[in-house]
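Entry for the shared binder. Reason: the reviewer on the internal report wants the predicted structure included alongside the sequence.
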Amino acid sequence: MSLFLITLGLLTLLQVGHLHLLRRQLPERWHGLLNWALILIHLPLACFFLLRLTGSSQLGLMEILRPLARGAFYFQALTLLHMGMAGSVLLYWHWRHPKAHVMSPSRRAFLRGAALGSAGVAVVSSSAGALQAYGPPETPTLELHFDDLPEGLDGLSIAHLSDLHAGPMVPTGVLALWRDALRGMKPDLVLYTGDFVDSRPEELAPFFGLFHDVAPPLGSYAVLGNHDYFQDPRPIWQGLEAIGIKPLENTHVILERRGARLALLGLQDPMALNGRFQGVKFGPGPEPFLASRDIPRDAFRLCLNHRPSEWHAAVATGARLTLSGHTHGGQINLIPGLSSARILGPHTNGIYEESGRTLFVTRGLGVVGLPMRINAPPELPLLVLRKQGFRPGDRLLKD
């Protein structure tokens, strides 16, 4: 309930600010309609969140509210973009007219003239962001080179999925797109690095129905992300096991391929120590020494670790390669080339190498907060392990 109240409070503050902006930009004859319009837009969203957080998601009312709530989420995107652009216009006005009276007719005329343009840009941007978020994911093939890779692991292909965020902002049809893309890859191994759900375990039911028959030769393995601990994670663990995806929470498995051994480790997310945001403990958090105990010395170590900011914990396991997600590549990057995920740390998207260790951070697939992606399209990469000195002609060959 506290999460609901925080969310409701933030939405209220956002819309009060937006209402103030709209009153200053729109003709006065429209002002009487603004309050009712905003209430009608946000009431389904508030009801939807309240039902989810009180455990009433089994009600048929949820299916009626879901598309209306998704529409309200789109309106939040419009609101943020509109307010940001209007703020930029206002700053520009003050820069060009530093001595102008703040309530001058010229200022009002300028702001009203810019209102239509900023609203239009907001609509176009949010629409383009929604198309990017819910379109087919990018499926790059990336080769990762290691001089100590056992020969039997050369050419091993790994599909890396992360941050699905199954829930109100990820329709079943989008999950099906991701499943079809995964099937088309035909990887040797499928790895998931967390945030299966937006917040509730039951939101993963469509995923279980669609991914139950994905069966790569070396299996499917996963760790959970911070969102997976917003509620009791045990139904997620059990559901994953039931469809053949083995959770690795501070443990490892040994996989064999052509006489070589791969030690696949998983670290538990720190949110396990603060489940439900109330200090409910679902586990000890990341325990690198527990996860790496009794691993054979000749095994190549690959670690699943949801947050790239916890790369040091993965390095402590002896992992040569760490796979992470969490950042969404920034998800909404209004300035091309500048990731908004930089606030989460220096490792936001792509391949990083430090002191002989490699980290790969995927942008992931789903969305959180707003149903859009800008300059951060969804990604389902195929990683191919290569022993240093491979032949260029082998680039896309499957073993």
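Summary line for the report: The chain has two domains: 2-134, 141-394.
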